[in-house]
Batch of 2 targets.
Target 1
Amino acid sequence: MKKKWISILLVVVMATAFFTGCSGSSEPKGDSEKGALDYSTIKIGEITSLVVNDGGWCQATHQSLLAAMKELGIPESNLVVIENVAEDQTSVANAYNALASEGVNLIIGASAGYATFLSDLAASNPDIVVAQQGDQVPNLIGYQIRNYEGMFLAGYASALMAESDKLGFAGSMSEASVRAAINGYALGAKFANPEAKVQLVWANSWYDVDLETQSAKTLINQGIKFMGMEASSPAIPQTCQANNAYCIGYNVDMHDLAPNAVLFSYMWNFAPIFKDILTATVDGTADSSKYYYEGGDCAQLSPFNDAIVPADIQEKVLSVKAALDRGEIQVFGGELKDNEGNILVADGEVMSDEDIKVQKFLVENVIGSWK
Amino acid sequence: MISFITSICAAAIVYAVSILYAAIGEIFSQRAGIMNLGIEGIMLMGAMSGFMTVYHTENLLLAFLVTILVGLLLGLAFAFLTVTLQADQTVCGMAFLIFCSGLSGFLGKSVTGIASAVKFEPIPIPGLSSIPVIGEIFFQQDIFVYLMYLVIPLSIFYIYKTKAGLMLRALGENPASLDQAGINVFAMRYGYVMFACAMTTISGACISLSYTNFWNEGMTGGKGWIAFSLVAFSRWNPAYAVLGALLFGGISILGINMQVYLPGVPSQFYGMLPYAATVVALVITTGSFRKKHSEEPAALCQKYDREDR
């Protein structure tokens, strides 16, 4: 009998603790505020698939948003973040409704997996502007970064540094933006050294410390000293560091995680896009059919690791970046062949954005397959 | 070719060790009649608490001790629920899994995605490490691997060759008979559950203190479940658990290498291999065609209540 009471007491205590943790949403706010919006009153909601300091994708999105808000003078307290939102209907709807009841004017969805659910929700409530990373979807402002521009520079720098023609690339999953990173890296390497080849290894996982470690080790065992990566954990830079190899960080600045191995990092910089969306939300001109596909400053590089990258190579990389930004170098410019011998782009032509976005190929000097 | 093989074998050992602590701990727990489904969550608590300590103090020994302490406390809580309150073990295990996964993410939030200054580095054993091939595979590892070299024979000896091991096996088969012999069945179960949880948190520490030097939510990536399935696979014998862990680790690691050596095969196929191998091995080792009686402890998942008799 005593046990029964202890069990019941435990259940009550746990349930109380659980529900107090869940409460805290305030009353919904009406539309009346909308006309009087200025930068200090805009309220922003952010939905992320992991935590905002995940050391990868979500962190890049969050930092960009904070940077854009700071530039516009929006206090950080105007941002409501819901983390760990799974890519399914219930979770996304829950997060959306919670943000709506907090009275947000803009919601940023930081995973392409939210698209279909957010699209339906946005259609039912046109008062809240919703922006979503990924492809263009009805009712949502879409945004995507031309990561291949940054990765072109990564490949270029690796090939300049490497003594051998063989470079490596550790990929996560075969998805369009990942293939864009690989192809950008390989084309950049070829730009520096026409003989450069890139050995590709897939982990087939978005986050797996063991497999990522092993990917890096496999490449290093092949005699490869310089590699690119598209992965979220610090396992690859750390494995490089332990084996006297080098890599280019991805997502965020990975320098501090492996200071003797990271040449520099490719970083997603959504801040210019977010700044534009925030401005449009405030002045009431936000258009849900708008789509951003940006390169340049959005495909940002972290500061160089001066201890490893010589000054002349730094200069060369920066001058190629300037040429990319001016449009003098087209990453996917002809003549371009895939690694099965098909001609993708004829000489003198440039690949269309539609083809660049889907990336159904690996370029000529990549050793590996994407299917 | 030799360097390729040694590299794969050395990596397979590291992989195997990180699941073996949890698997051997769970073998003890299940032999005592208590099944803990929450291994994955408890591993995460171990990884998080160890990393948090090392990040703030830069003291690896302290981090290791904190990890064990966290394991013992979690074990105490789990034993209270399943032994004293006699709650359903499956339900409690799932509750622990969800609770510990969430709690580790919550408590570890401030140290997510940053590297600690120190980690357990490989220590080549003087003399032994210079033996060709063997030295590279076995004796250029870190302290977790060397400790495991002791844990394996000791656990086998304990279970099969000591009086305490005999009592442990009896506890999982027929706790009532032990009780009649005047042995405190409840205290024994408390002890083994706490031991198992401490071993499980050490598995977690392997990942955040030696394999890498960072913490991230959910970083064990399903290793706890592999450890759990190893227990049935091993037929509750640590020796077979070692073989299973090496098999699984070896095939996982070989898969990535094969992408380079056999590029024609889709890479997803290699990703599937360890799981396919596990299914085949499970059928071979536990299939009913092989033996008439199961080696599963008869009292596993059964609550023990004196008043039931």
Target 2
Amino acid sequence: MSTADAPPLAGPGDPAVRAAAQLVRDLPPSPALWCDGLRKRYGRRTAVDGVSLSVGRGEVVGLLGPNGAGKTTVIKMLLGLVRPDCGEVMVLGRPGSDPAARAGVGYLPELFRYQPWLTAAEVLGLHVRLAGADIPRDEQHGCLELVGLAARADDRVGGFSKGMQQRLGLAVALVARPELVVLDEPTSALDPLGRADVRDVVLSLRGRGVAVLLNSHLIGEVERVCDRVVVLDRGRVAASGTLAELLGRREVRLHLTALGADGQARLAAAGPVEREGEWFTVGLSAEDDGTTVPDLVRDLVALGARVHAVEPARISLEERLLGILRAGAGDRS
Amino acid sequence: MTTRTVLTVAGLTLREAARRRVVWALLALTVVLLALSAWGFSKLVGLDTELGTMTSGEARLVASLLLNLIMFGLSLIAAIGTAFLAGPTLAGELESGQALVILARPVRRSSVLLGKWLGLVAFGGGYVVLAGLAQILVVAATVGYWPPAPATGLALLAAETVVLLTLALLLSSVVSTMASGIVAVGLFGATWVAGVVGGIGGALGNDGVESVGTVSRILLPTDGLWRGAMSAFQDPIALVQMGPGEGGFPFLSEATLSPAYLAWAAVWIAMVWALTALSFSRRDV
């Protein structure tokens, strides 16, 4: 086709072009991180088997699972450090195979070392240049201040303790104004104070709309800061969802005496029951509208049971995680 | 993005050489070598031998022989220095987790590799050229000998260093840190010995033995480039005086390099570099 036959190019003032541009602007932003069907084998061992997950913009997602579940391998595949055998990765709206996709990513690896012959400030400067960002020196120093290393800015990294290296790693992950921060065991070498600092950093990132993928063994930490949790077990996603979804099952503990067979049947009708002497724990369904417990107590009293105590109980993420992992182990055996 | 990465990594590599005291160790070693050679060369003039005082022609012959010997020493220092610097560059950084934080940035692995390679080339090549030039000046000042083509000779010495460090980089992307340095220096030495063996074969008129040198010079161009450098440093009359039967002498070279061989050396470097880039880009870190 010659150029003479081509339809005239639409200019920027064309209403159709303006409408299309508006349409694109109004599209929801792509997830900060998205992967589908990631697989990785090392020799005969399958490390990651069909993992799909996504982290929305400004969302904090926790990655949980036992040792060897494939969490670090998944993170490395998301960041292009390990080649997946199959599967797709998108980082901040670009394919993961494109290095430019990582321009807005800050990463704190689990096991790492910085050039021991550089000072802390020089390490930050190096990473700012590699990220192609233009960050003023004051702001770089601010990052060191944030992790409590301002006084050590001009000391060589070779003399840093493991905990200080981890603090520096956090500063490096934050220095280039990331839109997505991936933290792999960020608190493994930190004292309780350092852990609290990391928690504050993650919460302030969420406040600024920065997405965070947090891999941590410390379930309490994950429970406090994460919007959503993905549980990996043996290379697969064993469970995922918001904390409310995962922890949806609530429990009520009752101290009862003079409980007859009718009363026991009434308890069982409310939910799964566990008994320890005179204490009964009843699991409540997620759809409970708040009437189950009062109705149960009324009926028990009517059936002649004596009610000494009624305590609400919430399953912790730890118990839920153990439940998921044990159920997975049970399925396999 | 690519140019910035290459320059940043090249600068980092040079800074590492400076901070790790490699530069100072090499400088001290070189100064010692230069001082010793200056002392030796100054004794050479008017040396009394059993045959009487050396003529100026004899002194020039010995001077060009010794110059080549010392240049070999310098190229050996540069070879070992860069091979042991290039080894930790890839393998060591992959092992220690230094690569992890760099490669997670928006950088192409080939750009990181090119930056490292350029930094090492600047360091190794720069060292050989500067130390070699200093040695030539020492010889000129003490015995008044000026080699026929010093610039060509120094360039070929630098090229030899580049060949070796490219090999060390390839090795360090596939085997461990220490192994890569040892294997690279070992291959360098083996090729040199094979070249000497080939030279002896040539002098004896044994084609089979001579081909040992030729084949090794093609497989690893360090020895071929070294022989080209020698022929650029030595007094052209020296070889005539030694006679054709002495062609196997390891510190005199018979002929200058052919352009075809130089082109092959360039192709060799490009091929080995491309292999390294391929292996590095596929590697899980």
